[in-house]
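Q: Hi! New to this. If I give you a protein sequence and the SMILES for 2-oxoglutaric acid, can you show me the bound structure?
A: Yes, paste them in.
Q: Okay, here:
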Amino acid sequence: MKLNDTIKLDTYKIVIPNGLIYHIPEFIPLQESKKLFIFLVRSLFWRKDSIQLFGKKIMQPRLTAWYGEPNLVYTYSGLELQTIPWTYTLLQIKNQIEATGIGNYNAVLINYYRNGNDSVGYHADDEPELGYCPIIAILSLGETRKLQMKPKKSKDSTLSFMLKNGDLFIMAGATQHFWYHQIPKEKTIKNPRISLTFRKIVAT
Ligand SMILES: O=C(O)CCC(=O)C(=O)O
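A: Thanks. Here is the predicted structure of the protein with 2-oxoglutaric acid bound:
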């Protein structure tokens, strides 16, 4: 999708109880997504960190990278990440996502799931530095993976979205305050995926 293409946002809007989602399939066309995936896997600075989970130190079951405006710090699960400055390509993608009119972003946490054994457990992106009602925009590249959502408190049912190569998935409104999300392990999946999760750090 080119910067000046107009997107009919309402077509992609999914209103959920106490939350708002936009799922835009093939936001990046397939051929471009394939090239972008290879380029990013090869060129980004990937970290393999351990995190604190229920008082225990464990290796994160995926690789990550943290880029953005200088000196932004993001703290989660006992980890403190300091931004690497935007690359040209990441900045282009950020601009393209902002051109949808949903959200402004100053950093991106990138996840590299090497196969279906890699995952991220249920959590909400509700850290204080993301402020009130944070908007999280996820560009999915590579293998299709399932993103599941479950309510933090209410008895609303669990939601499931298949994120394909090139899809843009945006969690907006109060979603982070009322819902958890995860990428579950799927043992049959052999191929890798990366997710670029654009966010805005408002206080550090
Ligand atoms: O990989 C994804 O699509 C989700 C990643 C995620 O939940 C996160 O980075 O907070």
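A: The first helix runs from residue 30 to 43. Let me know if you'd like me to explain how to read the tokens.
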